[in-house]
Amino acid sequence: MKKYIVKRTLLIFLTLFLITLLSYTIIRIAPGDYTTLKLGMEGALKAGSISQEILEQEKKLYGLDKPVIVGYAEWLAKFVRLDFGISRKDGRPVLTRIGEALPITLILNVISMIIIYIISIPMGIVSAVKKDKAFDRVSSLILFLLYSLPHFWIGLILLLYMASGEYLNLFPLGGIRSDWAAGAGFIPRLIDFCWHLVLPVITLTYGEFAFLARYTRANMLEVISQQYIMTARAKGLSNKRVIFIHAFRNSLIPLVTLMATLLPGLLGGTVIVESIFSIPGMGLLAYEAILSRDIPVIMAITTIAAILTLAGILAADLLYSLVDPRIRLEAKI
Amino acid sequence: MKAGYWGVLWREFSKNRLALAGLVIVISLILLALCAPLIANNKPYIYITEGKVYLPLFYDIITNGKEYAELKGTDLSKEKFTGFKLFPPVAYSYSEYDLDSIVVPPSRKHLMGTDEQGRDLLARMIYGSRVSIFIGFIAVIIYVAIGIIIGSIAGYYGGWIDMVISRIIEVIMCFPTFFLILTILALWGPSLASVMLVIGITSWPGIARIVRGEFLKLREMDFVVASQAVGAADRWIIFRHILPNALAPVLVSATFGIASTILIESSLSFLGFGVQPPTPSWGDILSQSRDFMDFAWWLTFIPGFAIFITITAYNLVGDALQDAMNPKSLSGK
Question: Considering its fold, how many domains does chain B have in total?
Fold first, then answer.
């Protein structure tokens, strides 16, 4: 086990190294370096309002005067000391900006993940047990349709009908905090925060829980068709016991690993959801950074997203061996 | 009668009525996209006046944008041009604007209403389908091709080659893909080609994994060993013997892939990183509707619904293919 964890950790560092190197290279070799955008260099230089000297200074500040490999090495050296540089947009350290945005996105994702699992697992099981009955058919069809609904469309429609005031004015239009909540106590602030999260969480969850419920159902059906279930029934165990004690536990195994694959998807999905609902999390930060070519922020977000994904995969693998002793991790690598 | 593998597949597939409906939608959309200029155009098919016969639409298509010298610059939809005119079902082009009818609700004149520049929404939707279908197919073809080549090399040769390729696949799977796509498009400038290429280049690991798995299974089979024994070249064995047997799961994955590529493309367009105006795309139409959505419901609902229906159709087909391929469903019925 120890050997496995060491190996995996090494692999994680290698993956992280490759991902950041690739991202850095892609950004650096892109046409038109990004200092030009900030200062409007092309135009300003011609007009003579900004000297060549300032341009060079600016390039130096972001390591653009050096070759890609040297620039990357410097970025890496800073990253090891957790120094992501300074955001070009407002001159604050990137780490501070991420420190503000990451908790919001994490809360959003953790809540969504919990809701996804709470709704989809029971639904999947009931569908599997009542296979081809009315409940199964109807819920399968609904889940299928939900799965194909584009997030950005549903986000807009929810905003229009539930928040804009044109129809219903149940929820706030966006953001995560009302003006009145600034001076209020903890409980009202918490309620206000949750109230702001309702629509974004709905937008973020419906597609994934549809996916997970379908997945649970398929898994459960797979398990029910196994011979040991037949044996259990043949022994005369009650249906309830067979389903919950024998089948359900085994159908849980793939669901654990699935968490790892859901996580990056959720993080990607937040770009759209956060920009629709103007939630100041990682997704919106990423979107704005990309729009303003804020390279230090882009690099930091790519790195953190990759770390989260890798950690998710590692956690899933470890959990996998925990819930299923038959899996020997040493053999996997 | 003995049906081949694909024959059995089709028989199983065609039992699923919903999937057949999905297939009909998929095929109609492809035809719609291919024939868009013949369906939505402000030039008549045929125009007869003073004994002369003109075929403005076909002339335009054949000569790639030229007009009859004597009709040059004339808007034939105006009433002063008398004579026999036969217009396409949607007598507007996607870029033809009419500032006298801005944001008009659906009516007999404009079946889906008009947008903020007075352009006919139906015509724009029909042309927008081209972007979705085109990007969907080309991007998936690119990544399926890459995935098949890399996956078959890994699966067939095994050993250290497989080791290296599998690690590369793992690295790419940890990449925050959507974010990478956004970054590349923002830095390189969005266009039809770059959207397709970026999706194509980043999405192949899934296919490569499937193909690798199939190859690992198939390469031990007697027919492969037999052709190795008679000295067939590796290329021959890979492409003529193993690959045809590994294609079915690739087909399923590619079908789902088209659905998710269409979703990614429309999300990118929605965020402003997709195909640039004046070329219409569904995501872009939806994104533009944000400013008018409190009174122009059609601008929000129609493009969103089109994306939804298209994705659902592809998912239905993919789902049914998957069921049809599952040997359990064969023996069960």
Answer: 2
